[in-house]
Amino acid sequence: MFSLTIVVTALGWVGAVAGVLAYAMVSRGRWRPDSLAFQLTNLAAAGAMMLVAAMNGVWPSAVANLAWVLIGGAAVAAMVRSRRRAHSLAPAPALAVVPALAAVPAEAVPAQAAVTAEAA
Questions:
Q1: pLDDT tens, 43-98?
Q2: For the chain, what are the domain ranges?
Q3: Which of 5, 60, 68, 113 gives 20 to 30 Å between its CA and that of 85?
Q4: Contact criterion met (CB below 8 Å) for 55 and 8
């Protein structure tokens, strides 16, 4: 039977692996530090490790990870706002401009063209 401690500890290990993975991906140039993938992975890792630290009463680590969560959350929020702003400021797709047809007086249309138009 699973206890809450086992589940939280497992989440802590997942968080630790995710944090190391995110750091490795940035260090190897696979992710950019300002990428959403990096920021979200860091945020999840810090949250999981904060939970484990708090459950075990390791308050310095819990507080450090809380700071990590707050910084990561602020970074993700800023990225989302920036993307929304960029999307709302993007120029609309160009529409084709069709010149208006000029009105032509009936007497200017040759008789043959007028007959053909009436037959159609």
A1: 999 999 999 999 999 999 999 999 999 999 999 999 999 989 888 876 766 665 65
A2: 4-89
A3: 68
A4: yes
Q: Which two tokens stand for residue 79?
A: 């990225």
Residue type, 33: P
Which CB contacts under 8 angstroms, 24+ apart, belong to 73-76?
73/43, 75/39, 76/36, 76/39, 76/40, 76/43
Question: What are 37's two structure tokens?
Answer: 């993938």
Place of tokens 């000029």: 102
83-96 tens-digit pLDDT:
898 888 767 666 65
Helices H, strands E: what count in the chain? 4, 0
pLDDT value, residue 95: 64
